[in-house]
């Protein structure tokens, strides 16, 4: 990855927006601009903040990450903070004499930001989350290949796990098997895997429970892995046995909505337009009230990032954005079906990442 080129591109944008610098506070943006791979241990504990100025960059971190920062980055000043990130940042900003700084408001806790703002009294801080996300939205060829690998490894993990899953085990036991394979073949999960069976499958983001998986009922498995920081995300609904006629109908409807959307999505349409394609198909079959989330979301260094395929996303889709296509139908008290694959948006359609396997022909 050419991190230096990315920072130069950002620097040009800073000049146009009359900003003296930008504070990258999310782990994904830090990594995108510097190659520094450390994760934050929670909203209260940052592993570092990257300050990109027009002519140079500083990575503020602490002693735990000093060696890692020096090994992973190039062309960046590493500042090990012994008395707090806010004091170190204030010292540099005072030295370079900037007046306006952009920052990622969605990924910095209020307490830390307040300390920075109070310490840097003469600097105006402006929310600019979209500044980095605009660049991250359209993937570079190298990024697409890493995401493709992530999808392929995710499918391998699913295949290995599926051979050991069956009725009689609990959702938690199934999730442990999935995680074993994820840690064996990848850097780790891009999110905690979902295993939701029977009535629990009516909850789109269910947490695996001690419920025993039964024959013939729908089991939603939603999982993803990371390869060199890049995420994958796939969902399959499986049955151990023969599903009821109702769930065969629901499954066929979700499958049709997914395939119809994948054939129609292309650059230039809005995320809302894309969502409507699948939503209209599900509504046509009488299940419109049971499709309770958007059709998809962007994936990259974060498993959930722009663009979104949802009724609220009115922005146009761009080439080389990577998104999920994941319609679902959820019947309270009975169960649900969701199918999800990842695609690259092109001028004339989409490119499916992965094999698209493990889908029934009901």
TrEMBL record:
Coiled coil: none annotated. PROSITE patterns: PROLINE_PEPTIDASE. The keyword Ligase does not apply. It comes from the Bacteria. Residues 6-137 form the Creatinase N-terminal domain. Keywords: Aminopeptidase, Hydrolase, Metal-binding, Metalloprotease, Protease. GO terms for molecular function: aminopeptidase activity; metal ion binding; metallopeptidase activity. InterPro entries: Creatin/AminoP/Spt16_N, Creatinase/aminopeptidase-like, Creatinase_N, Pept_M24, Peptidase_M24B, Peptidase_M24B_aminopep-P_CS. Residues 145-347 form the Peptidase M24 domain. GO terms for biological process: proteolysis. The keyword S-adenosyl-L-methionine does not apply. Pfam families: Creatinase_N, Peptidase_M24. Belongs to the peptidase M24B family. This is Aminopeptidase. It comes from Dissulfuribacter thermophilus.
